[in-house]
């Protein structure tokens, strides 16, 4: 599990709202490391986190005549292509080897999840590039004894109900989630799976599904996705031996754009929006619990129960997360001081084990830790509170608690 989970973070440019409010950038990235500065305590050392990849997409780019963003000479700007090269290629290779893969985008509303996953206009995200490369690689591997089949589905989970994004009309209350009594796996009854024969067919399906997504305006984002979107691509490789008998290698790729993880107070949520928020957080914390239980199991902890049943999202991803699956998480970050709390909780949502370490001089590290410890004790004494837990610098917090 430790090696089969990769975690990346990506910091986007300022949006118009942040520019209008004169926002300051509080994120810094250096190699695999990301640090965040608390705008209220500018003298305090920034908190540091290590990831498999820290993608700087905040500045250092130019838009060409077609609207594609390219890194300026010498800049560390991480383009869509770089993200695909690092993360998407692995998904593709795994699929050809017959592994299941899941790719999640996580983060507050408007932080850039959809940009990384699907992309906008010519700046295609990781999902369309994976699909394009899938068909290109199939063509390259063309062999008379090999047949490929690709099947596509796209659904969203909104308020714990499943909607098929490839169908205009969905039953009231959503499609039913059922459990296969023999395999124990959950599935969506009546979900449309369409065979696709080319990239352009998949592209059309993604556009169709994206247009059917449930979006709503919040303070944070004019078109905010309030649902989890799950694109599933089933990739079958059927080979024929000399005697004419066939064997099938099957891989399921789940590409999941999670709903915004923000807290109620920052979105100005009331009524329906508040209910949506509660459901979003229910499934995000269920997802965090499943991932950490799987990590416990892989570390040899016996009796760890994996709580798949706690949300529709984790039920449907049971097969994609457990078993022979490889998992990639992309956490999307706002650069702005005004989003400090949300961005910090996104950075801490890394419960899963990985091997990346902070590249820090050991003396600097010790000084920083002592300073933080000092600060924590000082605050605790001032409030007469109990000293508990570690200081905020640990890169292994939990997913933020439901509000
Ligand atoms: N890496 C990036 N480079 C350039 N622009 C970006 C990048 N990431 C995000 N943006 C821009 O930021 C805005 C918000 O991004 P996006 O829609 O992807 O957020 P989101 O996290 O999916 O939001 P929601 O959860 O509300 O759907 C978009 O206008 C997008 O074009």
Automatic annotation (TrEMBL):
SMART domains with a match to the protein in the record: KISc
Residues binding ATP, per UniProt: 107-114
Family: Belongs to the TRAFAC class myosin-kinesin ATPase superfamily. Kinesin family.
Name recorded for this polypeptide: Kinesin-like protein
Boundaries of every Kinesin motor domain copy: 4-356
Region listing for Disordered, in residue ranges: 383-403
Gene Ontology process terms (BP): microtubule-based movement
Keyword terms, alphabetized: ATP-binding, Microtubule, Motor protein, Nucleotide-binding
Domain of life of the organism encoding this protein: Eukaryota
Organism lineage: Eukaryota, Metazoa, Spiralia, Lophotrochozoa, Bryozoa
InterPro entries hit by this protein: Kinesin_motor_CS, Kinesin_motor_dom, Kinesin_motor_dom_sf, P-loop_NTPase
UniProt-recorded Gene Ontology molecular function terms: ATP binding; microtubule binding; microtubule motor activity
Cellular component, GO annotation: microtubule
């Amino acid at each position: 599990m430790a090696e089969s989970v990769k975690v990346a973070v990506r910091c986007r440019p300022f949006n118009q709202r942040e520019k209008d409010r004169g926002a300051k950038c509080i994120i810094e990235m250096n190699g695999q490391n990301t640090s965040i500065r608390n705008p209220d305590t500018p003298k305090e050392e920034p908190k540091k986190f290590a990831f498999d990849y820290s993608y700087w997409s905040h500045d250092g780019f130019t838009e060409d005549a077609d609207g594609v963003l390219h890194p300026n000479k010498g800049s560390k700007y991480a383009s869509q292509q770089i993200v695909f090269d690092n993360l998407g290629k692995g998904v593709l290779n795994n699929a050809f080897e017959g592994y299941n893969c899941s790719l999640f985008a996580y983060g507050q509303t408007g932080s850039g999840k959809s940009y990384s996953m699907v992309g906008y206009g010519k700046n295609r995200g990781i999902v369309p590039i994976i699909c394009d490369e899938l068909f290109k690689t199939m063509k390259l591997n063309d062999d008379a004894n090999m047949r490929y089949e690709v099947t596509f589905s796209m659904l969203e989970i909104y308020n714990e109900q499943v909607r098929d994004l490839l169908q205009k009309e969905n039953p009231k209350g959503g499609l039913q989630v059922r459990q296969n009594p023999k395999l124990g796996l959950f599935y969506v009854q009546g979900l449309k799976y369409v065979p696709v024969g080319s990239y352009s067919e998949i592209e059309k399906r993604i556009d169709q599904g994206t247009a059917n997504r449930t979006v709503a305006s919040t303070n944070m984002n004019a078109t905010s996705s309030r649902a989890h979107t799950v694109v599933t691509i089933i990739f079958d490789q059927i080979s024929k031996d000399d005697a004419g008998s066939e064997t099938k290698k099957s891989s399921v790729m789940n590409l999941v754009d999670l709903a915004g993880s923000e807290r109620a107070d920052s979105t100005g949520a009331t009524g329906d929006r508040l209910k949506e928020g509660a459901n979003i957080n229910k499934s995000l914390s269920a997802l965090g619990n499943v991932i950490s239980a799987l990590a416990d199991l892989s570390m040899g902890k016996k009796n760890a129960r994996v709580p798949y049943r706690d949300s529709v999202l984790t039920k449907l991803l049971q097969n994609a997360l457990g078993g022979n699956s490889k998992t990639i998480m992309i956490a999307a970050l706002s650069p702005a001081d005004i989003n400090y709390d949300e961005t910090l909780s996104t950075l801490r949502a890394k419960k899963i084990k990985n091997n990346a370490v902070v590249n820090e001089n050991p003396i600097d590290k010790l000084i920083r830790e002592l300073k933080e410890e000092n600060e924590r004790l000082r605050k605790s004494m001032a409030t007469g509170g109990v000293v508990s837990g570690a200081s905020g610098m640990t890169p292994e917090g939990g997913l933020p608690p439901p509000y």
